[in-house]
Design goal:
single chain, alpha/beta, Adenylosuccinate Synthetase, Chain A, domain 3, Adenylosuccinate Synthetase, subunit A, domain 2, ten-stranded mixed β-sheet, globular, binds inosinic acid
Length: 441
C-alpha cells in the first residue's frame, strides 16, 4: 500500500486539511511530521467546521490512526484543549491518536520568547504566530529541549526544566525586559498534562514501521508550506521546521525508501500571512475581493492574509524541491468573478528575466513579477462534478498552469465542503488509491 506525502506548495494555507480529509478514508494512518500548533487545518464536514492545530486531519475518520510524529513540537495545553474539543463533538481519540515520545515540548517560555524576539526585531520581524514554535526548535537544535518522553520521568523533567528556567529567565529579563517564570508553576501544570497525555505517548517510529510492514498505507500530512521551509523557504521569513517532503522521513522515522509519492497542494492564487517576500502580491481593490471570497484570514491567528496571483515560479520550485508527482489545486471558485486572471511566469530584475526562484533577499525584494494574462470565466465553478463541467475558460486556465508546472493536477477543489472536489481525468491519485474514484463520484 502506498505511503504518500501531502505538502503545501506555497506559503501554507493551501487547503491541505481538506485534501487529507478527502484521502483519509483510503489510508490507514495519517501522520503529522513537523510544525506545531502554529498550523490551522480547516476541514468542513457537512455543516460542521473543524480547525485542527496539532492533531492530523485524519482524526475525523473513525478507524484512521493518527500520529503526531517526532518532528512536531507540541504545546500540551493547546493539544489537550484540541483533544477535549474533538471528544465533545463525538470524535474517538482512544486507539486513534498516538504521540511520539521524541516530539519536543513547547514550554511556556517559548511563546514568551517568540513574542519578545518579534518585538525586538521591529520592521524585520517575521510575523510569527506567536505560539513559540521557533524557540522550541531552537532548544531542540541546541540540545536543551524537553521531549514528550521526558514529561513521563518526573525527576528528569524537573532537572531539565530547572536548567532551562535559569537560562530563559536571564534572557527574558536581561535581554528582552519581559516577564520571567518559576519552576514550580510550570512543573505542576506540566505534570497534570503528563497524566492526561501519558496513554497516548509512545514509540511512534516503531509503530509506523510495524504498520508499514503489515501493509498499512500512510499519509504524511505536511503543515505550512514549501516557501516557509527552514532550508528551502524565503529565509529568514520562514517557520523553523522542514515543511518540504524530505521532512516527512526525518519527522516520523519512516525511511525515504518507504515513501512512494508526493502530492503538492496549491491554491489557484497565492496567499501569505506574516512578513517576507510575496513577488506576485496583488494591489488595489482586487485584494479585498479575493480576501473576502476566499475567507483569507489566518485559521490560527485570524490575521488577514496577503493575496497574490498564482506564481508559477514558486510552483515549479515546489515541484523541484519536493519532487511533486501531482498537484491538488484548491479554491478555483475564488477566481470565478475575476474579469482577468494573471499568472506570474517569471521575475524581472535589473533588466533580466528570472525563471528560477532567487535565493537573495535583496533580489526578491526588488523583483517585479512578469505576468501572463488570461481572460476570466465569470461563471460559477462550485458544483462541477468533473472537469468537463467547468467553464471552458477555467479549463484553459488549468491547462496553462499544468503546462507551466510540468506535472498534472489530480484534484480540483471548488469549495470548502468535501463534495466540491473534482477528480481529474487520469488523476495520478488513482494509481495510489483506486477507490478514490468511487468515493468522489
Ligand atoms: P511561526 O511558525 O509561528 O514561527 O511563524 C513563522 C512564519 O510562518 C510566519 O510568517 C507565519 O505567519 C507563518 N506560518 C506559520 N504557520 C503557518 C500556517 O499554518 N499557515 C500559514 N503561515 C504560517
Amino acid at each position: 500500500m502506498p505511503n504518500i506525502v501531502v505538502v503545501g506548495a506555497q506559503w501554507g494555507d493551501e487547503g491541505k486539511g481538506k485534501v487529507v480529509d478527502v484521502l483519509a478514508p483510503h489510508v490507514d494512518v495519517v501522520v503529522r511530521y513537523q510544525g506545531g500548533n502554529n498550523a490551522g487545518h480547516t476541514v468542513v464536514v457537512g455543516r460542521e467546521k473543524y480547525v485542527l492545530h496539532s492533531i492530523p486531519s485524519g482524526i475525523l475518520h473513525p478507524g484512521c490512526r493518527c500520529v503526531i510524529g517526532c518532528g512536531v513540537v507540541v504545546d500540551p495545553g493547546s493539544l489537550i484543549e484540541e483533544m477535549e474539543g474533538l471528544v465533545r463533538r463525538g470524535v474517538t481519540l482512544d486507539g486513534n491518536l498516538y504521540i511520539s515520545k521524541n516530539a519536543h515540548l513547547i514550554m511556556p517560555y517559548h511563546p514568551a520568547l517568540d513574542r519578545a524576539s518579534e518585538a525586538k526585531l521591529g520592521p524585520r520581524r517575521i510575523g510569527t504566530t506567536g505560539k513559540g514554535v521557533g524557540p522550541a526548535y531552537v532548544d531542540k537544535a541546541a540540545r536543551v529541549g524537553i521531549r514528550m518522553v521526558d514529561l513521563l520521568d518526573e525527576r528528569l523533567f524537573r532537572q531539565k526544566l530547572e536548567a532551562n528556567i535559569a537560562q530563559k529567565n536571564r534572557l527574558l529579563r536581561d535581554i528582552y525586559d519581559a516577564q520571567t517564570f518559576t519552576v514550580e508553576e510550570i512543573l505542576n501544570q506540566y505534570l497534570r498534562y503528563a497524566g492526561w497525555l501519558a496513554p497516548y505517548i509512545t514509540d511512534t517510529a516503531l509503530l509506523l514501521h510495524q504498520w508499514i510492514e503489515r501493509g498499512y498505507s500512510v499519509l504524511f500530512e505536511g503543515a505550512q508550506g514549501t516557501m516557509l521551509d527552514l532550508d528551502h523557504g524565503t529565509y529568514p521569513y520562514i517557520t523553523s521546521s522542514s515543511t518540504t517532503a524530505g521532512g516527512a522521513a526525518t519527522g516520523t522515522g519512516v525511511p525515504p525508501t518507504r515513501i512512494h509519492g508526493v502530492l503538492g497542494v496549491a491554491k489557484a492564487y497565492t496567499t501569505r500571512v506574516g512578513g517576507g517576500p510575496l513577488p506576485s502580491e496583488m494591489a488595489g481593490p482586487i485584494v479585498d475581493t479575493i480576501r473576502a471570497r476566499g475567507n483569507e484570514y489566518g485559521a490560527t491567528t485570524g490575521r488577514p492574509r496577503r493575496c497574490g496571483w498564482f506564481d508559477a515560479v514558486v510552483l515549479r520550485y515546489a515541484v523541484r524541491v519536493n519532487g511533486l508527482d501531482t498537484v491538488a489545486l484548491t479554491k478555483l471558485d475564488v477566481l470565478d468573478q475575476c474579469e482577468t486572471v494573471r499568472i506570474c511566469t517569471g521575475y524581472r530584475h535589473r533588466g533580466e528575466l528570472l525563471t528560477e526562484f532567487p535565493e537573495e533577499e535583496t533580489v526578491l525584494r526588488e523583483a517585479e513579477p512578469a505576468y501572463e494574462e488570461v481572460s476570466g470565466w465569470l461563471a460559477p465553478t462550485a458544483g462541477a462534478r468533473n472537469e468537463a463541467d467547468l467553464p471552458a475558460k477555467a479549463r484553459q486556465y488549468l491547462v496553462r498552469l499544468q503546462e507551466l508546472l510540468g506535472v498534472p493536477f489530480c484534484l480540483i477543489s471548488t469549495g470548502a465542503v468535501r463534495d466540491d472536489t473534482i477528480l481529474c481525468e487520469d488523476s495520478p491519485l488513482l494509481e495510489w488509491f483506486p477507490s478514490v474514484r468511487s468515493s468522489l463520484l
